[in-house]
Amino acid sequence: MKKIKRILTKIKTKIHEAFFEFKFRRILSRIHPAYGRWIFVGKGWHKIILDLDKQLAKIDPNYQIDQIKEKFGGLRYYCTLEHDEIGHALIKQAEEQSFKTCERCGVPGSTRKLRGWLSTLCDKCLKKRMDNDVGKDY
C-alpha cells in the first residue's frame, strides 16, 4: 500500500509541475533571464500572481519581471513597467492581499512567526506545518 501511495504521489507531483509550467508560461517568459526563470511561492498565492499579471499586462503588455518571491511572510513582485504609478498600486494591492491569504492553500490566513520565520498560513496549514516540525532542531 505504501508503494502505491508513493507512486501516486510522484504522478501527482509530475502533473502539478506540468500544470504549473502551462499556467505560468507567460509569466515565466517575462522574467529577465539574468534572474533565473522561477517563482518561489506556495500554491496558495498562484491566483494572486496570475490575476496581477493579467492586470499589469493590460497597462503594459511588454512589462518585464525581475523577481517573484516570498519575503517576511508576504509576496514580493519586482518588475519594470511603463506606467509605474498604476502598476505599483496594483502590485501593492496584491502584496497586501498575500498577507491575508494562506501561502499553501489560498484560503484566508494570517502572518505568523514560526521558528524565527514569518509565514502566512491558515489554521489548518499551520497545524500541518507544526506537526511536520515536531522534533526538528533548526
Structure description:
The chain has 138 residues and is α+β, with helices and mostly antiparallel strands. It has one domain (2-133). It has helices spanning 2-30, 46-59, 84-98, 123-133, and strands at 64-71, 74-80, 110-114, 117-121. The strands form two sheets. It has a two-stranded antiparallel ribbon. A two-stranded antiparallel ribbon has the order 3-4. A hairpin with a 2-residue loop joins β3 (110-114) and β4. The chain is globular and about 50 Å long. 21% of the residues are buried.
Q: What features would you highlight for this structure?
A:
138 residues; two-stranded antiparallel ribbon; 4 strands; 4 helices; alpha+beta; two-stranded antiparallel sheet
Topology summary:
Layout: H1 2-30, H2 46-59, E1 64-71, E2 74-80, H3 84-98, E3 110-114, E4 117-121, H4 123-133
Antiparallel strand pairs: 1-2, 3-4
In short:
50% of the residues lie in helices and 18% in strands. By secondary structure, the chain is α+β, with helices and mostly antiparallel strands. The mean pLDDT is 85.
Number of domains: 1
Would you identify the regions where 5 or more consecutive residues have pLDDT less than 50?
none
Number of strands: 4
Shape: globular
